[in-house]
Specification:
29% of the residues lie in helices and 22% in strands. The protein is α/β, with parallel strands linked by helices and 359 residues long. The protein has 2 domains: 13-246, 3-Layer(aba) Sandwich (Rossmann fold); 287-357, no CATH class. The strands form 5 sheets. The chain has a 6-stranded mixed β-sheet, sandwiched between helices. The chain has a 4-stranded antiparallel β-sheet with strand order 2-1-4-5, with helices on one face. α5 (126-139) packs across α6, α6 (155-167) runs parallel beside α7 (185-200) and α7 crosses α9 (242-253). The longest helix is centred in the middle third of the chain and has 16 residues, at 185-200. The chain is elongated, with a radius of gyration of 27 Å. It starts with 12 loop residues before the first strand and ends with a helix. 33% of the residues are buried.
């Protein structure tokens, strides 16, 4: 992991006396008050504060998603606060990557298609978009989830898709707003390990968090209170996430000892104590996936390689084979044959998803 960047290096991001005021009727709410800070190239910065302290507002201004009411914001020496909306859109697409707490993924699209969104706005052709999105998913350990939709992924996997979307354009800065806020502790550590790995490769990261333990994975911590920066601390002993991930994985793979059931005999009994051993599971043949031909545990519901539904009827299996070779599939309601890409039956209008799956 990289150490703290050189303090003499020219700042990549910088704010000078930034103020943000929201008008609520006749009253004014000061979200930021004279906030001045800087982020150097290759730095991992954490912004901490309680709810309503202004940390998310500061991140939105750094990410060119909002304009300050007063003050200046510099990105590579350019004052972005005075740029037009069109210029800011280009900067967001080419120089900034965003990771949100709620993932902000399109539920109807696959992981690869979600990662491709910034590339579409950049005007990159379809074939190159696919190559770059798959490479980004491989970088965050999701090479086997390229064609899975968000509903088929865990919370940690969804956040890794969001990180892949943020890095696919190779931005100058990654801005993460509570990236572990919606995750359990194990998934949160895995996400921090990925962010530290990206930082070790030279990525500059600014992360907003309210968790002190998460902030310890950064190089430096800025604390906000009532819109003002009250502290700027350097983390002397930066916490490393990778050993924690390895420890959790090792504990998960450790086999559990077999337990024996012992019956306690009465004190006045001279009969031998019977010991009941756990029954040995009857050996069953593995289930073969009809899509990818991989072996799965007996009675598995989904394939562990491609996620395909395994407990199907004969009609479902026939239709799956037909889809793989581009042949016609049969509706389970009326028996009419349809194209393999049809969503609804041409004979009775029923959904073809049941015919594809055999359910």
């Amino acid at each position: 992991m990289r150490g703290h960047p050189n303090v003499t290096e020219f700042p990549l991001l910088m704010t000078q006396e930034v103020c943000k005021v929201y008008k609520m009727g006749d009253s004014e709410v000061h979200a930021l008050r004279d906030a001045s800070m800087m982020v150097r190239p290759g730095e991992f910065l954490a912004v901490m504060g309680t709810s309503g302290s202004g940390k998310s507002t500061l991140l939105q201004i750094l990410g060119c998603l909002d304009r300050p009411s007063a003050g200046k914001v510099f990105l590579e020496g350019q004052d972005v606060a005075s740029m037009s909306d069109q210029e800011l859109a280009k900067i967001r697409n080419r120089k900034l990557g965003f990771v949100f707490q709620a993932f902000n993924l399109m539920p109807q699209e696959t992981a690869a298609n979600n990662v491709e969104v910034p590339l579409q706005y950049a005007g990159i052709n379809r074939k190159e978009r696919r190559r770059m999105s798959v490479a980004a998913l491989m970088a965050v350990g999701l090479s086997d989830r390229v064609d899975h939709r968000p509903a088929e992924l865990s919370g940690g996997q969804r956040q890794r898709v969001a990180i892949a979307r943020a890095i696919v354009n190779k931005p100058l800065v990654i801005l993460a707003d509570e990236p572990t806020g919606a995750l359990d502790s194990k998934s949160g550590v895995e996400v921090m390990a990925i962010l530290q790995q990206l930082n070790g490769q030279g990525r500059t990261i600014v992360m907003v968090t309210h968790d002190y333990n998460i902030a310890q994975y950064a190089h430096r911590v800025i604390k906000l209170s009532d819109g003002s920066i009250i502290a700027d601390e350097v983390i002397e002993n930066q916490k490393q996430a990778r050993p924690d991930v390895v420890e959790v994985a090792a504990a998960k793979e450790k086999p559990h000892p077999r337990r024996e059931v012992v019956r306690v005999q009465p004190a006045d009994s001279f009969e031998p104590v019977p010991i009941e051993m756990p029954r040995k599971r009857i050996e069953e043949e593995p289930t073969i996936c009809p899509r990818c031909s991989s072996e799965n545990r007996p009675r598995s519901r989904h394939c562990r390689q491609c996620g395909f539904l395994l407990n199907q009827t004969d009609l479902g299996r026939d239709n799956v084979r037909a889809r793989l070779v581009g042949d016609q599939v049969r509706c389970d309601a009326c028996g009419v044959r349809n194209r393999p890409v049809a969503k609804f039956c041409g004979g009775c209008g029923s959904s073809m998803d049941r015919s594809y799956s055999g359910l």
